[in-house]
């Protein structure tokens, strides 16, 4: 209960800081057990602004959490640089946050090779962020190979979406 | 619980399946060059006709595996299925075949079987002994010559009745083809279910024909690429347990697992050495994947490859002196062979497309692989890279694993599209005989174990 209260207070403060004009309801619906600050009432997407330093805030204040790669490639192109630059900027602003970068591959590679390829991609994103001043000690990587596609089709458009590195803020 | 008990029994000194002494002296032992034989390399399938009547029992007895009379029919069924799956034989029976009285098992009515246009005849019997243990006699006859070609006797616990059938089928297959046995073996694989973006993957084990299936992990963590140890008591595999993708070794008898490689961001692609002492695997540091070996009981890994490319998929030659692996050091995935200490690395694949997942045959003569270019296909080549032959033609075949005798390959076949479905298939070296292995759910990453003792 103490945890929930703290979260609510923080959420209220976040709303105040963000200058949100929306009136908070008098009584809030009961939260389902422990409340994740990132999804606490008042910080959802509908409310417009998330609590600074949270995963939700990260997603709202960057170009994208995902960079894409060419077939069998792991180089950081101009689009990826723009995305990672925005991530690096946010990460510099919140130096106590930690992130994990997930590397993924499309299904048109063998399982083991794709694990290595996803690892290459995650590390390419990590190295870029580190070069932009984010301490490497704050960044972990994990490769899922082709095990966790985001697009389900077996076509070029789906594969292009699945060749990706995704940055996730750990709360 | 029953299977666990059987496994424990196997792990101890007492063999679960004992070959009984010769039942009666053979009247004549035909020379190996006489009588029926099948050439497994002949691509014009010969379809040798084999009749397999239900095996009679001297006395119907209820056992934990069922009544011996019913078992005699079930065992004949299993033998017929094993032989049919080779694509080399045309077995018939036990359905639609005349029942054989007990007294006729060792004295076939050759006149009758010639009339049924059989070339070979398999007869046998089932008897129950103390504690429900079963004795299965197995005889192969050349119908035209009226001679016995081979005989085997097996004593098994009731839960192992299928093993007696597989051993009998192995004896027939070996006698007729001159090839090593493979039916009495098991397969470890990844059982799959769920949507394509959230597949639940569990370690599972089954007999090579899909029977006696059971799960080994609960599906909470993704598991990939399980590989049997040469004595099939341990399984090396990759798991995402605690969000730390690494390698584990599972002890089948104990039902326990332990972490093999510690303090690493990514370890994968495990494979045992032929003597079971080492496990080859791939470890990635700072995005660079190289092949290492580690004692199968743990310890400090020794690095075998260096350089910036992705080196993975290591597989030992049967004598343990060499390793085949894949590397993209040339720009695309290709196959390489090196000495077991990492020296003398040389490329062996030069065809169009990419080559991956090499597996050295237990006979040493061939290397199986996945070739990508258009589809994903299973193929074989010599360890020098010559004689490449593609065995399958599909959208998503991957990851071949050899049968114990080096004649058949099991692999994953992924489906195109949003289903994420995957099945396990088997193909023989002619490429003519392929079939799906029935699994409870979907399946991938099969690893075929050794012939069981």
UniProtKB/TrEMBL annotation, chain A:
Domain OmpA-like: 56-171
Sequence similarity: Belongs to the Pal lipoprotein family.
Location within or outside the cell: Cell outer membrane
Any GO CC annotation of this UniProt entry: cell outer membrane
Name the UniProt record assigns to this protein: Peptidoglycan-associated lipoprotein
Entry-linked Gene3D superfamilies: OmpA-like domain
One Gene Ontology term from the biological process aspect of the record: cell division
Organism: Sphingomonas turrisvirgatae
TrEMBL record, chain B:
Keyword set, alphabetical order: Cell cycle, Cell division, Periplasm, Signal
Family: Belongs to the TolB family.
InterPro entries according to UniProt: 6-blade_b-propeller_TolB-like (IPR011042), Tol-Pal_TolB (IPR014167), TolB_N (IPR007195), WD40 (IPR011659)
Name this polypeptide is given: Tol-Pal system protein TolB
Cellular component, GO annotation: periplasmic space
GO biological process per UniProt: cell division; protein import
TolB N-terminal domain: residues covered: 37-149
Protein location: Periplasm
Taxonomic classification: Bacteria, Pseudomonadati, Pseudomonadota, Alphaproteobacteria, Sphingomonadales
Signal peptide boundaries: 1-18
Main location: periplasm
Assembly, per entry: The Tol-Pal system is composed of five core proteins: the inner membrane proteins TolA, TolQ and TolR, the periplasmic protein TolB and the outer membrane protein Pal. They form a network linking the inner and outer membranes and the peptidoglycan layer.
Function: Part of the Tol-Pal system, which plays a role in outer membrane invagination during cell division and is important for maintaining outer membrane integrity.
Gene3D superfamilies to which the protein is assigned, alphabetical: TolB, C-terminal domain (2.120.10.30), TolB, N-terminal domain (3.40.50.10070)
């Amino acid at each position: 209960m103490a945890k929930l209260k703290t979260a609510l207070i923080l959420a209220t403060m976040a709303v105040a800081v963000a200058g949100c004009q929306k009136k908070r309801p008098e009584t809030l619906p009961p939260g389902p057990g422990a409340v994740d600050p990132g999804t606490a009432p008042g910080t959802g997407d509908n409310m417009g602004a998330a609590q600074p330093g949270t995963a939700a805030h990260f997603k709202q204040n960057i170009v994208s959490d995902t960079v894409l790669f060419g077939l069998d490639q792991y180089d950081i192109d101009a689009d990826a640089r723009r995305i990672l630059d925005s991530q690096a900027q946010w990460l510099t602003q919140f130096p106590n946050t930690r992130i994990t970068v997930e590397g993924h591959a499309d299904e048109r590679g063998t399982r083991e090779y794709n694990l290595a390829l996803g690892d290459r991609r995650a590390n390419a994103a990590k190295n870029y962020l580190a070069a932009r001043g984010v301490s490497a000690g704050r960044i972990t990587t994990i490769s899922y190979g082709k095990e966790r596609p985001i697009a389900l089709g077996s076509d070029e458009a789906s594969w292009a979406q699945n060749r990706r590195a995704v940055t996730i803020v750990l709360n | 619980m029953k299977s666990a008990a059987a496994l424990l029994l196997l792990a101890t000194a007492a063999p679960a399946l004992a070959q009984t002494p010769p039942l009666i002296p053979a009247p004549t032992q035909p020379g190996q060059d006489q009588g029926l034989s099948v050439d497994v390399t002949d691509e014009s399938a010969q379809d040798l006709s084999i009749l397999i009547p239900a095996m009679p029992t001297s006395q119907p007895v209820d056992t934990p595996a069922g009544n011996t009379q019913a078992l005699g029919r079930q065992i004949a069924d299993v033998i017929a299925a094993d032989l049919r799956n080779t694509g080399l034989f045309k077995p018939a029976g036990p359905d639609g075949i005349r029942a054989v009285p007990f007294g006729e098992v060792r004295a076939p009515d050759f006149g009758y079987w010639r009339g049924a246009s059989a070339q070979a005849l398999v007869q046998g019997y089932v008897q129950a002994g103390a504690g429900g243990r079963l004795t299965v006699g197995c005889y192969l006859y050349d119908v035209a010559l009226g001679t016995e070609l081979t005989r085997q006797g097996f004593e098994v616990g009731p839960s192992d009745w299928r093993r007696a059938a597989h051993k009998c089928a192995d004896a027939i297959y070996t006698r007729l083809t001159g090839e090593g046995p493979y039916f009495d073996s098991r397969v470890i694989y990844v059982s799959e279910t769920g949507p394509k973006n959230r597949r639940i993957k569990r370690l599972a084990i089954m007999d090579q024909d899909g029977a006696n299936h059971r799960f080994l992990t609960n599906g909470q963590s993704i598991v990939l690429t399980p590989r049997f140890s040469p004595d099939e008591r341990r399984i090396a595999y990759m798991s995402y347990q605690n969000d730390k993708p690494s390698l584990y070794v599972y002890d089948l008898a104990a039902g326990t697992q332990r972490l093999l490689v510690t303090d690493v961001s990514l370890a994968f692609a495990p494979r045992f050495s032929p003597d079971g002492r080492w496990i080859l695997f791939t470890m990635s540091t700072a995005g660079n994947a190289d092949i290492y070996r580690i004692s199968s009981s743990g310890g400090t890994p020794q690095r075998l490859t260096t350089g910036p490319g992705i080196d993975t998929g290591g597989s030992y030659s049967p004598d343990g002196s060499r390793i085949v692996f894949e590397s993209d050091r040339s720009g695309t995935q290709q196959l390489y062979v090196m000495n077991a200490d990492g020296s003398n690395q040389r490329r062996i694949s030069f065809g169009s497309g990419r080559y991956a997942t090499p597996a050295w045959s237990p006979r040493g003569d061939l290397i199986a692989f996945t070739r990508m270019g258009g589809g994903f296909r299973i193929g074989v080549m010599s360890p020098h890279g010559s004689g490449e032959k593609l065995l399958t033609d599909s959208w998503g075949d991957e990851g071949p694993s050899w049968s114990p005798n080096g004649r058949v390959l099991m692999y994953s076949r992924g489906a195109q599209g949003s289903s994420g479905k995957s099945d396990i298939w088997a193909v023989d070296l002619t490429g003519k005989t392929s079939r799906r292995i029935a699994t409870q759910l979907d399946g991938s990453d099969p690893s075929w174990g050794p012939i069981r003792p």
